[in-house]
# Entry
Amino acid sequence: MTLDEIQSAESNLLLGTYDRNPLLFERGEGVYLHTPDGTQYLDLLSGIGVNALGYAHPAIEHAIAEQSRKLIHTSNLYYHQGQAALAARLTRITGLDRVFFANSGAEVNEAAIKLARAYAGLRRSEGAPLGTKILALENSFHGRTMGAVAATWKDKYREPFAPVMPGVEFVRFNGVADLKAKFSTDVCAILLEVLQGEGGICQLSQEFLTAARDLTRSTGALLIADEIQSGMGRTGRWCAYQHYVSENGSGAPGERSSTGWLPDAVTLAKPLAGGIPLGALVCSEEAARAIHAGMHGTTFGGGPLACAVAVAVIDTIERGHLLDHVTDIGTYFRNKLQQLAQNHSAIVEVRGLGLMLAVELDSADLAKHVLAEMMRRRILINRTSETVLRFLPPYILQREHVDTAVSALSEILSEQPAVAAATAPAGGAHHAR
Ligand code: PLP
# Structure
């Protein structure tokens, strides 16, 4: 089918959940996607942070081919080789102890919320005064299921489906005083993204994370880090929380260690299995006490195929020293964007860590225009929080790709005053500056 035919069929057959770009992709290789006529697009979004090793990576191809010949699915009624092998890697790289596998980000956040409620119940049965309330953060995004969406900030995601899960309160981003005011023994968990993705690539302060850690330790509430977008190496460390120091100062910035700031649970998904759906909740031994057989589960989660691919992804990242590469190329990209900001007053801020980067512009119209122009130049990025251009490229990105993207951005922003003047309503500039 042609793009036109697919668009027309989908408009009659699918729920209208997505406002897709008019692009049809057939295959991918490295950092490029290809349309059926062979047009090549530089992909700086990697399927919203999923395709960390790019497209058609031999390690992923090999793992899929080999495992699919042996076993794709068994259910969680029986053992297979994959879960223990992957859990050993995930506990090592996160610094936590036990793993539950599911199929997506929202599902593992759902599991984390259930873990927090169950753990609070266990503690209550042991005499500790712990409630059921969950604190989440303003501008958070945790997924679309009824629990995860209840902890997601934007009204537009929650209100059409009301009532969502009750008992969530939102805390101001980096608002230590607000956190302290809202925290009490009623709270069973603080759920946060150390580096918010959909919220515009905004990073929590050391002060906020230290306060969250101290408060939760004081009552036994769980501190849950959603690293679905920022985890699995995207920021140059396995988890973004590994950029922070612990309450007693261990894990100094610059050290790659798991002895720094540590949550009680972390959720991972997106790049975990290189594009095969898989999510993981990794938690402390203490929190895991709350879960026993039959309380939670899934048919597909942690299947042999997804686990084999995830093992291959982690081993490929380690063997290829890709965390160091993400740090180096991320620094190069960020510096280039910062240079760009010096020449273009429409850039309000450049933010991010590793290959999770953002350029905030001074108007939503301009951000839309830049996105469309980048696509016309066959470079894929996206826009979040209205004014923020987001970059989540594959970890195999090279300097030449960064240079191509940054010079395209420079060209578009340089043309922009002419565009603004041409589209400005009489008597006023179109874009606030
Ligand atoms: N949490 C964060 C931080 C995310 O960025 C996302 C997806 O964008 C999710 C949760 C939900 O993940 P999924 O779409 O796999 O359910």
